[in-house]
């Protein structure tokens, strides 16, 4: 009985082993087909859109102040008023300066009279009077000489005293000097002033004239005039205040045209040219500006070069101090440019893309160059016509089966 049971068990095991040996081996699981977007590689021109910002300024601006001190008696203009170059904006009390002008005028008249007298010489009456004095002194000397001869004889005869003789002698000496003085006075009258006196008189006159002009110039400075055509941007003080030389009174600017200095990276400065047009945006208002100046040096702290752009502002609806954004499109070289998201990069020398190769993702090493807008330059590894996977690359492995969703982009 036991033997029959063992035979039955062995037969069942044998049948089971035979049945297992006849089954097919298990098939490997199929890879998931991944959905991607594919685009044909083609050459195109790189386009970079540069956006820069800057603060609007008046085309011209001047802070106007008096050159002389005084109390402000008039301020004729207010913010927003248009003014012309040379127009009077304010005045200080000019009384003291007017007195200086009057005093200098009197000095000029006095020195002019002295100069005229020196140059013209004595009048005829003065010449006649001087000649008569000479004749009178000559007669007096002749008489004194005759008297002295008579007194001298008497003195020798001891008819008069020593004192009387000396008195006569002194009288003769005085008469001689009186004649000399009269002759010199007559000579001055007839010959005129010396050249040195004439030069001194002329120098005194010239100095008086210069002082008069300086006083008149100072008086004129009591009126504050606009140095430029423009608009009053700011009124910096009030009438009645005491101001000194150099105290700011008004700020005047030309806002018919505004300007902005844009900080252009020095690597891009070669693409900017004087005379070109740049688009400017202020709170969604767009205007064209013109490049008028490219500064000659780089700002060492920012690495940028200033580019001045001027904007017409006839309605004065853009204001100095507002910040505008400038947009400039820069065209680069022709080459292969692909979307940034299609490139997997661990550095410039370790980058790859995936190409659609007969329905499979083919990992392809590439060399990348510059970024142009939202695209990367591919310097090598791709050629025109390659079917580049541009979306879905982040979950791909080399050899994965793929399917282009929605067809292939051109």
UniProtKB/TrEMBL annotation:
<dbReference type="Pfam" id="PF25989">
    <property type="entry name" value="YknX_C"/>
</dbReference>
<dbReference type="InterPro" id="IPR006143">
    <property type="entry name" value="RND_pump_MFP"/>
</dbReference>
<feature type="domain" description="YknX-like C-terminal permuted SH3-like">
    <location>
        <begin position="336"/>
        <end position="403"/>
    </location>
</feature>
<keyword id="KW-0732">Signal</keyword>
<feature type="signal peptide">
    <location>
        <begin position="1"/>
        <end position="21"/>
    </location>
</feature>
<dbReference type="GO" id="GO:1990281">
    <property type="term" value="C:efflux pump complex"/>
</dbReference>
<feature type="domain" description="YbhG-like alpha-helical hairpin">
    <location>
        <begin position="94"/>
        <end position="209"/>
    </location>
</feature>
<dbReference type="GO" id="GO:0015562">
    <property type="term" value="F:efflux transmembrane transporter activity"/>
</dbReference>
<comment type="similarity">
    <text>Belongs to the membrane fusion protein (MFP) (TC 8.A.1) family.</text>
</comment>
<dbReference type="InterPro" id="IPR058637">
    <property type="entry name" value="YknX-like_C"/>
</dbReference>
<dbReference type="InterPro" id="IPR059052">
    <property type="entry name" value="HH_YbhG-like"/>
</dbReference>
<keyword id="KW-0449">Lipoprotein</keyword>
<dbReference type="Pfam" id="PF25881">
    <property type="entry name" value="HH_YBHG"/>
</dbReference>
<protein>
    <submittedName>
        <fullName>Lipoprotein</fullName>
    </submittedName>
</protein>
């Amino acid at each position: 009985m036991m033997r029959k049971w063992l035979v039955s068990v062995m037969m069942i095991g044998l049948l089971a082993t035979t049945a297992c040996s006849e089954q097919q081996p298990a098939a490997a699981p199929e890879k998931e087909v991944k959905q991607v977007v594919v685009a044909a590689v083609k050459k195109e021109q790189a386009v970079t859109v540069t956006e820069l910002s800057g603060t609007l300024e008046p085309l011209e601006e001047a802070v106007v102040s008096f050159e002389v001190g005084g109390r402000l008696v008039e301020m004729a203009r207010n913010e927003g008023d248009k003014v012309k170059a040379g127009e009077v904006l304010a005045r200080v009390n000019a009384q003291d300066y007017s007195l200086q002008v009057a005093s200098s005028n009197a000095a000029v008249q006095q020195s002019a009279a002295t100069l005229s007298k020196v140059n013209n010489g004595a009048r005829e009456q003065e010449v006649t009077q001087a000649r008569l004095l000479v004749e009178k002194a000559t007669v007096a000397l002749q008489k004194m000489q005759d008297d002295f001869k008579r007194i001298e004889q008497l003195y020798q005869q001891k008819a008069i005293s020593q004192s009387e003789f000396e008195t006569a002698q002194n009288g003769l000496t005085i008469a001689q000097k009186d004649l000399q003085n009269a002759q010199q006075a007559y000579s001055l009258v007839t010959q005129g002033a010396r050249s040195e006196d004439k030069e001194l008189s002329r120098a005194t006159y010239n100095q008086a004239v210069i002082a008069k002009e300086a006083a008149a110039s100072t008086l004129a400075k009591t009126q504050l005039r606009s140095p430029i055509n423009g608009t009053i941007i700011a009124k910096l003080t009030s009438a009645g205040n005491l101001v000194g030389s150099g105290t700011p009174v008004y700020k005047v600017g030309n806002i018919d045209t505004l300007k902005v200095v844009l900080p252009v990276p020095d690597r891009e400065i070669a693409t900017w040219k004087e005379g070109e047009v740049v688009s400017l945006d202020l709170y969604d208002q767009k205007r064209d500006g013109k490049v008028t100046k490219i500064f000659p040096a780089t700002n060492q702290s920012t690495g940028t070069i200033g580019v001045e752009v001027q904007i017409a502002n006839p309605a004065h609806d853009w204001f100095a101090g507002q910040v505008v954004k400038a947009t400039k499109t820069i065209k680069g070289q022709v080459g292969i440019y692909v979307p940034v998201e299609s490139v997997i990069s661990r550095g410039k020398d370790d980058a790859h893309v995936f190409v659609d190769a007969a329905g499979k993702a083919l990992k392809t090493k590439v060399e990348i160059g510059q970024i142009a807008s939202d695209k990367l330059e591919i310097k090598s590894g791709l050629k025109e016509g390659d079917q580049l996977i541009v979306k879905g690359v982040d979950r791909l492995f080399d050899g994965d089966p793929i399917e282009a969703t929605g067809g292939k982009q051109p």
